[in-house]
Amino acid sequence: MLRSKLTDEMVQFIQGAKDWTEAIRVASEPLLKQGYIEVRYVEAMISNVKSFGPYIVLMPKVAMPHARPEDGVNQMGISLMITEKSVSFDEEKSVNIFFVLAADDESSHLDLLKEISEFLTNEEKVSALLSAKKYEDVIKLL
Amino acid sequence: MKILAVCGNGLGTSFMLSLNVNKALKELGIDGECKNMDLASAKTEAADYYIGSPEIMEQLSYGNKKTISVVNMVNLNEIKEVLRKQLEVK
After folding, report:
1. Measuring CA to CA, which residue among B14, B39, B35 is closest to residue A117?
2. What residue stretches are annotated with the PTS EIIA type-2 domain (chain A) (predicted)?
3. Which class for A137: exposed (0-12), middle (13-18), buried (19 or more C-beta within 10 A)?
4. Which is catalytic among the residues A61, A66, A93, A109?
5. Fold category of B2-88 in CATH
6. Using one digit for the tens of pLDDT, what is the confidence trace for A52-77?
């Protein structure tokens, strides 16, 4: 499912971001443009981190920004952004890979999360994703 | 044994963590189940242990709640290690 959801227009490569809030905004742009999410969903993802801390950092270098379905999701989707320079969340947590998750209910995204979890368990794949430069590099890893 | 994986929303990070905690419990031969939940609900939900990222656990560690902090939600070895450590020390 990850492979079919991560279409060309959902994947971005950027140099870096001035801070993590900008990174989340840029990383969610494809979902916003395609109408998967509303602007308020982006703000909800940011305020979640502000109130609960950077728990969306799943492992070193990888974050999965997300909020709740009722925060402005129209359709389930996922976007991916890879930054050349790492983006820092706090002194310890810095990130280069952003999977922005938009879940439209409590359950339909769970298979997708299983897939992402399995992908992230594979160290070789994660390090290959970190050095991906174009869409083709990403899709062949999935 | 009931373990609750907790995150801010209870549907992303905590679900992913619960997958790996359940895997770890199985591999360690510990009889238990891990479910996932959001922080607000977890505050009033009883469980033997609560597991999640350090900043979420900080917000749960009051009273006599037993919390377990995990930094890497997908590293099965780290999760097994913290579970082994925490669950043996009763």
Report:
1. B14
2. 4-142
3. middle
4. A66
5. Rossmann fold (3.40.50)
6. 999 999 999 999 999 999 999 999 99
Tokens of A142: 């999935």
Domain span at residue A18?
A: 2-139
Q: Which residues from A are below 8 Å from B74, CB to CB?
A: 58-59, 117, 120-121
- Domain residue extents for chain B: 2-88
Q: What is the pLDDT of residues A109-131, one digit of tens each?
A: 999 999 999 999 999 999 999 99
